[in-house]
Amino acid sequence: MLTVRAPATSANLGSGFDVFGVALDRPADVVTVERAAETTIEVSGAGAQYIPEDPAKNTAGVVARELDAPAHIRIDKGVRPSSGLGSSAASAAAAAVALDALYERGHTGEELVRVAAEGEAAVSGEAHADNVAPSILGGFTVVRDDGVLSIDADVPLVACLPEIVVSTRDARGVVPRSAEMDDVVHTVGSAATLTAGMQRDDPSLVGRGMDERVVTPARAALIDGYDAVCEAAADAGATGVTVSGAGPALIAACYPARQRAVASAMVEAFADAGVDARAYRSSVGDGAEIVER
Fold it and tell me: Structural domain tally of the chain?
């Protein structure tokens, strides 16, 4: 028997659609695996009632199939489904690391990212790695077809999760299929700025690099109170705010001294819009880790 903790994540970060991701130090999923003749899934915790226990439809179950590592898998959800904080990815990442260790497969972290991405396909329909990469490797990650770049970073973040449900499939459905060249150029500049900010541990650059004009506005329209929350966060000291992953969570960068104020401002702004929310004061976190053997 073996237990792994895998963190929540924020993907895209505005300018890095399907490419950028960052590990958060909280919340997290905890997955326990035990060898078995066939794979079974048991789910508890946040939103457990919405998560399929059929191994063929559960991200962790698909990971077990991909690794040829049947097991009884117990998932304690700390990351709410349909949150924009990589809920399905956290389960897939934890299962990949746990089953690889349990069966002594010896895969590299990057190889496990590809395995866990197949688990993501069970939820989103496509094997995206922008959430599973930081959940496994930690830090800030850049996903390419030919590999994954991981950067250790130390940037304060605030993730604010409203009590709104936005499914990944719906959020992908509103993404524009084309963009004006001026907007493409702007996105490239923002992505480069954000990457430099992560490399330099510079909240100002990271915040400026979140600005994006194509995908973010389309997804923001699905989130009640989005504009007011962004404005409140900026007034409280956030250097940048954007949609976290597919939403509805928002992710903000800030300096350490402003983190508490930004978190409070975002929650209060959602409340003013008639939406309950909670905020997680975080930093760029570590990846999945074995917590018990």
Answer: 2
